[in-house]
Design goal:
Blueprint (H helix, E strand, L loop, with lengths): L2 H30 L4 H4 L14 H34 L12 H28 L5 E2 L5 E2 L5 H30 L5 E5 L3 E6 L4 E5 L6 H8 L4 E3 L4 E4 L5 H7 L2
Antiparallel strand pairs: 1-2, 3-4, 4-5, 5-7, 6-7
């Protein structure tokens, strides 16, 4: 397990722990919503006795139970969201942040190419046996074992992954050329564009928080505001052009 994978596992563990805390909080609130007589002191089914000395206590008990139940539902919803996020960690494909991304992508490329060859061979065998795609006398449509869309989609996926590998190799070459140090370019004193090789991020650094208009424009192009670093960051090389277009 490399450093990135350990980081992913730590993230999953944090989310699972947060989900467990939210579940416990939900259960705690649920218990406080209990209106049974042995808990609230109010007989089950007893209506509010308007004007009676118990009216205020009765209404307060109902109010507390209602608030507790709402809090329990909200905490339960939050726990579900955290559990879903924990389950999704590591399922989004191969991240460019992974130091083994190129090797993992190459493995997937090789697997996809082998599948492509197998599909082509199956179709060739089918045609060699005298079969031909087309409409039959009964109106049905005869197709080869692997439909054209299957081979074209798989080929497109291969090309997409090969393009990613080429981009990652270029990024690594850029990092090596820079000696592993971050590269900063200033734009008219408005922002600094930082190629952060350690974080595998392209960052736009501002003095203070940029306007909502600027943040919206950049976010629409893949950047996200990181308050801890005072930066808008994106993970892809192509985002560099956005800053140049916005701050020529």
């Amino acid at each position: 397990m490399n450093a990135y994978e350990r980081k992913q596992e730590a993230k999953r563990a944090r989310l699972e722990a947060a989900a467990e805390r939210a579940r416990e909080k939900s259960n705690s609130h649920y218990k406080r919503a209990d209106l049974r007589e042995e808990v609230s002191g109010i007989p089950l089914g007893q209506p509010i006795l308007v004007g009676h000395h118990s009216e205020g206590r009765h209404r307060a008990a109902i109010r507390r139970a209602d608030n507790a139940m709402r809090a329990s539902v909200e905490a339960s919803k939050r726990a579900g969201e955290l559990e879903a996020r924990a389950a999704a960690v590591g399922t989004g494909g191969i991240s460019s942040d992974d130091p083994d991304a190129i090797q993992k992508l190459q493995f997937e490329i090789d697997k996809a190419k082998a599948y492509q060859d197998a599909m082509k061979a199956a179709n060739a065998k089918w045609r060699k046996e005298g079969n031909k795609a087309g409409r039959q006398a009964d109106g049905s449509w005869l197709e080869p074992p692997c439909a054209p869309y299957q081979t074209s989609n798989n080929l497109a996926n291969i090309k997409r992954m090969e393009k990613r590998v080429a981009q990652l190799r270029a990024d690594h070459a850029s990092a090596e050329a820079a000696g592993g140090e971050n590269k900063t370019t200033s734009y008219q004193g408005v922002c600094d564009l930082v190629e952060n090789f350690d974080e595998n991020r392209l960052q736009i650094i501002f003095e203070g928080k940029p306007s909502a208009e600027v943040r919206t424009e950049l976010k629409s192009n893949g950047f996200r505001w990181a308050p801890s670093q005072g930066a808008l960051a994106a993970a892809t090389e192509q985002r560099r052009a956005i800053c140049r277009d916005t701050f020529p």
